[in-house]
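Protocol step 4 of 5: obtain the predicted structure for the target chain.
Materials: sequence only (see below). No template structures provided, no constraints applied. The aim of this step is simply to have a reference model before the mutagenesis design in step 5. Sequence pasted as it appears in the construct record:
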Amino acid sequence: MRHTYTSPREKRIDFWVGFTGWFVAYIVVYTVAGIALPSDSTQGSSVGTFDWLYLLLNLAVVIALAFTRLYAALGILAAFATALALIVVEGALFILGAWVASETNNFPSYVAIAFLFMIVGFLPFAVGGFFVLRAVHRRVR
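Step 4 output (structure tokens):
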């Protein structure tokens, strides 16, 4: 049954609950899975076997919310897009930092320079993300 929104404020609340709720749920689920699932020393952590089920759960929740609470589903989709963009930007900056640091043979400085690139790259991403999400917030009517 589709929820009827009575005000733009209610739409915004649903959007932000979906957006922040996805990040909170993601952190909680992966923390619990990392603690509860045993790790295999030959294949690393067994959390990877859980990933497909979690992906299907994410898609099922978005589809279900699209029919019941549209703006919460849009918030979750915005969280997906934000996480994907952050991964792409930070991955590229980490590789760039590793390339810059590759001239040194000292491993700790190599890692420190790569992470420095990531931290410096996160700041403009966070500022840009703030303005994009603020524009989305204002456009919800």
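Step 4 remarks: The CA atoms of residues 53 and 104 lie 42 Å apart. The mean pLDDT is 81.
Proceed to step 5.
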